[in-house]
Structure formats: structure tokens, C-alpha cells
Predict the structure.
Amino acid sequence: MKLLIITQRVEINDDVLGFFHGWLLEFAKHCEKLTVICLEKGEFSLPDNVEVLSLGKEGGESRLKYVWRFYKYIFQKRGDYDKVFVHMNTEYAVLGGLFWRLGGKEASLWYVHKAVSYKLRLGEKFMKNIFTAGKDSCRINSRKIKIVGHGIDVKKFTARPDTAKIYDLIYVGRISQIKNQKLLIRAVDILVSARKLTGLKVGLIGRTITEKDQVYLNELKLLVEESGLCDNISFVGAVPNMETVKYYNQAKISVNLCPTGGVDKAVLESMACEIPVIAFNKAFREIFGERSDLLLLDQPDEEELAGKILRLLNLPAAEKISLGQALRKIIVEKYSLENLIKVIIRNL
């Protein structure tokens, strides 16, 4: 197969999009030729059958130049690909959809987001398939949707038993109101002030992207200060995706408080590392199965969250080990990157 992939950024050290470098490595195993068009490129290490072309964001090019280069590349390289895979960016499904259809090149889209935009609705008309992680991950009504789960690199995200536990809790994710880190801070306040839990250490791992995010970060820092939790909660900042495994293994528990929607990859990464994770997203009820009472938060309530955290922290050592192993088994069997790419390749 000769495949064209359209994605936002190719940068192995990116804290948000660095995971896609692993996807490209896995795709390359199944392709004679892999051509990648990205909005921006940075550092990467890919095999010889992969060519990476940038639309020029790293050089400060204009949007008009992006569009011109996009059409130039998909035309010039038309002999180098027979299938197309668009990752998340629905505008490229719209811009290139008709060209690929007229050229007899089947195109598919990967989309994991609760938003249903006009670009998604229009792009869907040109796509053969829309791959998504779960039933709530793509809310457009279409027979083209294929639920394939997420892809976690289980060789990279794995338990490291010899790693010292620096954190009792971590939250891995962008600092944003939708991620609901404020709820975690309030739960920690209960654990420290009301439950008298001493020495509790919490790491918030992630960065802001928008100005609104920065305002929220300032609110979080003020809340930590006013609650007297400066010795308990630290703001770690951005961490390259390839290094987050270290933080999972330094933690006893991870927390993810995103609302119900797409299956958040950070939860699955934690599970792969055998680290119990408390989630609020109801999409994980099916994944957690019989462990949902222990790991799934029913309401965005700090008392309930504090109770679940305390229950996990107090689990006997043997139960903690058994729980971690069971969570990893779910990821290995159903959500490994290797299996995901094979499924996508078969359906392109």
C-alpha cells in the first residue's frame, strides 16, 4: 500500500501530538511508501519509506500559503499514494475530498471529538470511513463511522516497578476548564484539611494552549494558594508525550475529570502502566466493567472524588497489584497501537 497521511504536527517531543510519531512508525511497517503532509514539522525519526512535507507553519507562512502548498503536494505526489488517511483535521477532508474522489483515491478520516462542525458534516460526504475511538467520540449520524478504539504503545507505556512513587496523584492533560482540574484541587483540600491526610503529593502535568486556558491556570494557582495546598500540589507544566510514562510510574493513582465524550487517551496510558485511574467520563464504564464502582466518578463532586481517592490509596498492596495488572490486560488485548493500525489499514 502507498498511503498519504494528513496530520497537524510531526514532532516527537510535542506534549500533545507527540504520540502520533508512534502512529507513523506503525503505519510505515505496513506501507511500501508513506507520504505525510503536516501543518508543521519539527524533530522526528522515521524510516526511509516515509516522506514528511510541511505546509510551513514552523516558518510563519500565511494561511493562503498553507492551502496553496496543500494542493501542490496532493497533486505532485498523486503517484506516490493510492489511499488517504486524514487525522482529525476535518478541513483537509473538505479541501482534498473532491480531488481524491475524482482521482479514484479512497480517503478516510480519524475523528475523536464531541463537536460536530459543518466541516465534519461536509467532509463526511467525501470519506470512505470515519474511524473513531468510541460511540461518544464522533457524534455525527453516519453509516461510515467505524469504532476502533484508541491505540496505546504498550511497549512504551508499561509498568516500571522499580520507579519511586513521588506522587500520590497525577493529572495528565491540558490545563483547561473542560479538564476540570479545579475539582481535583477541591478534593485534595478535603483530603488534607478534613481527612487529615498528611504529606499528600499531587502533580498537574500539562500546559495551557489558549488565553482562556491561561486565565483558568491562574485561577487554579490562586485556589491552591488560598487553600494552603502549595506544599501538596505542583504544576509540572508541559511534558513530551514520550516522557509521560515516567510520571505515570512515579504516581500511585492518576485522575482524569474530562466530561463524557471521546475516550481520553491519558486514561488508557495510565491503565497500560498498571496505574489505577479515576475517570469522570462515562464512556469508560464499559471499559472499566466491574471495576466502575471503584474507578468511575458518578458526579462532579469533590466529596465523592476524595472518597474514591482515599479508597484507592488504602487498597491492600496485593489488591493494588492485581488491579493494575487487570487494567493493563484490557489495554493490551483491546487498545494496543499495533492492533489499531492493523484495523485501520484493513479498512482504508
